[in-house]
Design a protein that fits this description.
Elements lengths: L2 H10 L4 H13 L2 E2 H8 L3 H13 L3 E4 L5 E4 L2 H18 L1 H14 L6 E2 L3 E5 L1 H11 L4 E6 L7 H11 L3 E6 L4 H4 L6 E5 L6 E5 L1 E8 L2 E7 L2 H16 L2 E2 L4
Parallel strand pairs: 6-7, 7-8
Antiparallel strand pairs: 1-3, 2-3, 4-5, 5-11, 6-9, 8-12, 9-10, 10-11
Helix pairs in contact: 2-3, 2-4, 3-4
Length: 247
């Protein structure tokens, strides 16, 4: 990495060229006095003490007792860890600002992401829903409930077929989708039941979808307790459903 690249990196994380020069000088030359650092690094004598004080405060360098006082660079790898900690702290400090901006964005863009948290996030729209459902098709056991033809199109059939080659798949559909479900191979165990509240997939996370007016509102989560609730609800529907072969 060239000096110019180091300088750009230093500026990015909040350090001046004088601070960078002082640290690099100590790395290359070893322990030095403030006077020597100023002379070798080309830092004005009026600024060198404030530069060294800020680097000491940030844990980048330290001083050893004696007369005259000499400064020593901390190992670059240790400095790297210190900088990462500083950056992480800065990023965390911006979270309230980002959250406020997100709320402002959502209020002016209701067709985009509607809500998000550490527990789940919600999207709106058919294509976003399909993406989340595809994301969930990655587990050793997959349960799928679909009452909407939009969510069981040719692409979805192909995705379920592919997933069933490596996973146990149970598919629950409403009566109007029986013929569509018959296109899947026998390894996909399919049943039918009317009166479903919405669609869902339980696999690598849980996806819950409801159709609101003409669009779709979808929740995705990987939280264990939401997965347990979804599995319990699916099993209750599955128990009362009829095998498609009986129709």
């Amino acid at each position: 990495m060239s000096y110019e690249e180091l300088k750009r990196l230093a500026r990015l994380i909040g350090y001046s060229s004088y601070q960078l020069k002082a640290y690099l000088t100590l790395v290359e030359k070893g322990p030095l006095t403030a006077k020597d650092i100023a002379r070798i690094a080309g830092i004005p004598a009026s600024k060198v003490y404030s530069v060294l004080s800020s680097l000491t405060r940030d844990g980048i360098i330290y001083s050893e007792q004696g007369r005259p006082l000499r400064f020593i660079a901390k190992p670059p790898r240790e400095v790297f860890s210190t900088i990462l900690e500083k950056l992480n702290g800065y990023i965390e400090s911006t979270k309230p600002i980002i959250d406020s901006l997100q709320l402002l964005y959502e209020s002016n863009n209701p067709s985009k992401v509607m809500a998000q948290s550490d527990i789940f996030f919600i999207v709106k729209g058919l294509e976003s829903t399909k993406q989340l459902m595809r994301k969930a098709l990655n587990a050793s056991s997959i349960d799928i409930a679909v009452p909407y033809i939009d969510l069981l199109d040719n692409e979805a059939i192909a995705d379920i077929d592919a997933a069933s080659r490596n996973s146990e798949v149970r598919l629950l559909v409403t009566d109007n989708l029986i013929e569509v479900a018959r296109r899947l191979p026998p390894r996909v165990v399919a049943r039918t039941r009317n009166g479903m509240f919405g669609a869902g997939i339980i696999g690598d996370g849980v996806v819950l979808t409801v159709k609101y007016d003409s669009t779709y509102l979808t929740l995705y989560s990987i939280q264990d307790y939401l997965l347990d609730i979804a599995k319990t609800y699916f099993n209750s529907l599955w128990k009362d459903a009829s095998p498609i072969r009986d129709h």
